[in-house]
Amino acid sequence: MGGGGLSSAVGETAKRFGCGALVELEKIPLKYPCLAPWEIYVSESQERMLLAVPPENLERILEIFRSEDVEATAIGRYTADNVLRIYHQGEKVAEMDIPFLFRPPRATKTAEYRPASFEEPSFPEPENLTETLLQILSSPNIASKES
Questions:
Q1: Each residue of 41-78: pLDDT tens digit?
Q2: If DSSP codes are grouped into helix, strand and coil, which group holds residue 116?
Q3: Rounded Cα distance, 8 and 2, in Å
Q4: Domains of the chain, with CATH numbers?
Q5: By CB neighbour count within 10 A (0-12 exposed, 13-18 middle, 19+ buried), where does 48 fall?
């Protein structure tokens, strides 16, 4: 799965087939423990694939993956109600209509230009400009990084 991780793959598959989905985030194998639910759901992984398997074929598919020493996990199911439900450790963390994912509300924003008003800084002129310049140029933020 690329950009958007499961959030893209599950949502786009549900939209394509006109169904909903139930996802159980705790069933997803994690590379890094202690991720927040949203991090798990949008995490990108080039090694992952999403398969939509009819329930009656699930055990056979999992057997095939095991026989090839490939990790495979059932992380949820597609539903008939056109609603995406996401659970983490038994707690519902998100629920929204699938069409909403693809037609979010449009925000109307207004802006007002206000010209900036800055006063010219006032400070005494250094007595020795050469010394001041050398101090500035010796700062690690400004000094040359070349050897």
A1: 888 776 778 899 999 999 999 999 999 999 999 999 99
A2: coil
A3: 9
A4: 5-102 (3.90.650.10)
A5: middle
